[in-house]
Write a structure and sequence with these properties.
The protein has 446 residues and is an alpha+beta fold. The protein contains 18 helices and twelve strands. It binds protoporphyrin IX containing FE.
């Protein structure tokens, strides 16, 4: 038997299939070639969506793997958590985990609800809105407040503009072709990106200096400044800056995409019963519920989980490179090969999720799924650091907006999704029409 499982022979054709149908492209590969299957490339990438294979990857010694996409350092910074391996990855994770702990997230719930109210306060009946765009601005502002500790509206708007400019500056040309990353006397996309990057670095350095001077506060930046590793060492300014940029990259588009998919799924005519059930659950909360009451609604949670299952952000995120051989479902994979969990297969297995294409939140009320069956946030040593924050924010944003507005989809054409930066988001951002305003906005609670 070959050491690698079978798979498609053309990398280009596989890429085209992914770009055309980012969520649905993986199941046909698994059906045709079996699970696990491989994509050609340098290195080749072996994918599995089988819970036994996923368990083998997530429970292997973390030193078996290194991140596969190391040439992102120019965008993320050399010390970015995403690019570290072995002891350095473990050290940074230990320093960064406490601020993302579940109990700490509660401190940011009020801000999440308030920002959702503020960014939708001017919606009027008949108005078209693009949910992804609104959710992206809300989740960026959540990061500015919760992570950076910036809450004054003028400073938030200025910092948001700088960060969005930086993200926009990563054109596909310089992202996909490292040879084009040249300054060329100050002209061209890479030189423009570096100028934006310097502006953001200057601003973040000033924020870090202010956080060091201010002493303990509630925000994540302040907690990172205070954090000490086992040897009592703090993080350097550069390390903190690189993690702040990563949190913006990893944290705002992802949550916004998932919120947009939730609106899309709930407003499809075939899912009318789910929307009705969720509205009924939210309506008994009364006019002024506490954030925690809103967060504790079981059907709201099930809707968010089903959204993350049915619309995974990426079909095979977080690929890892093998530093030593790995036994994967009967294959002895050699060092140097890439491996990835195929979420786009795992979440669509008939034996785990009957009628997998159906949006059916009830499945999350009827049974519990193992961490090798339901994997929207990945797993193992590299599981999403912001998973608790993202799930909490999804529930609060969806609950807050639905309690205030009735909406309908502007078009009923099915949306297969499209690749947005590294993620699979709704092709047109989920365009909706505001139908009715249900309750006036109020301050300060949800
Ligand atoms: C619905 C929203 C989100 C989804 C679906 C999501 C999903 C993921 C996935 C699949 C990974 C790769 C895990 C792996 O390789 O096994 C990841 C990594 C990561 N995510 Fe998220 N994410 C979301 C939101 C967030 C937020 C809000 C933050 C922080 C503010 C965040 C921070 C990170 C970080 C730092 C990593 C890298 C972890 C490491 O390499 O050790 N994510 N996320």
């Amino acid at each position: 038997m070959s050491t690698l499982p079978p798979g498609p022979s053309s990398k280009l054709l596989s890429l085209i299939r992914y770009l055309r149908d980012p969520i649905g492209c993986m199941v046909p590969f698994a059906r045709r070639y079996g699970d696990p299957f491989s994509f050609p490339g340098k290195p080749p990438l072996v994918c599995t969506g089988d819970p036994a294979g996923i368990k083998a990857i997530y429970t292997a010694d973390p030193d078996t793997f290194a991140p596969l996409s190391a040439d992102l350092s120019v965008f993320l910074g050399q010390s970015s958590l995403l690019l570290q391996k072995g002891p350095e990855h473990r050290r940074l994770r230990r320093l960064m985990m406490p601020p993302f702990h579940g109990a700490r997230m509660r401190a940011y719930g009020e801000a999440m609800c308030r920002l959702a109210e503020q960014h939708t306060a001017d919606w009027r009946p008949g108005q078209p809105v693009t949910v992804y765009e609104v959710a992206q601005r809300i989740s960026l502002d959540v990061i500015l407040q919760a992570v950076f500790g910036v809450s004054e509206p003028g400073r938030m708007a200025e910092l948001a503009a700088l960060l969005l400019d930086l993200l926009d500056g990563i054109s596909p040309l310089i992202a996909l072709f490292p040879s084009l990353r040249r300054e060329l006397g100050g002209v061209g996309p890479f030189a423009a990106f570096l100028r934006r990057q310097r502006l953001v670095h200057d601003r973040l350095d000033a924020l870090i200096a202010a956080a060091r001077a201010a002493g303990p506060r509630e925000d994540i930046l302040s907690l990172l400044v205070e954090a000490r590793d086992e040897d009592g060492r703090p993080m350097s300014d550069e390390e903190i800056r690189d993690q702040l940029i990563l949190l913006v990259f990893a944290g705002h588009e992802t949550t916004a995409i998932s919120v947009a998919w939730a609106f899309y799924a709930l407003h499809r005519p075939e899912n009318a019963a789910a929307l009705e059930r969720l509205r009924a659950e939210l309506s008994v909360l009364g006019r002024d519920p506490e954030v925690e009451a809103l967060d504790r609604q079981p059907y709201l949670e099930a809707v968010c989980q089903e959204t993350l299952r049915r619309y995974p952000l990426a079909p095979a995120p977080g690929p890892r490179m093998l530093l030593r051989p790995l036994e994967l479902m009967g294959y002895a994979l050699p060092a140097g090969v890439g491996v990835s969990v195929a979420i786009g297969v795992a979440h669509f297995r008939e034996d785990v999720y009957p009628e997998p294409l159906r949006f059916h939140p009830e499945r999350f009320l009827e049974r519990k799924f193992t961490p090798f069956e339901f994997v929207p946030f990945g797993g193992g040593a590299r599981r999403c650091l912001g998973a608790t924050m993202a799930a909490y924010e999804m529930r609060l944003l969806l609950g807050t907006i639905l309690r205030r507005y009735r909406l309908r989809l502007a078009s009923l054409r099915p949306d297969p999704g499209k690749v947005r930066a590294a993620n699979a988001g709704p092709a047109h951002g989920v365009r909706m029409i505001v139908e009715e305003r249900l309750a006036a906005n109020r301050q300060p609670r949800c």
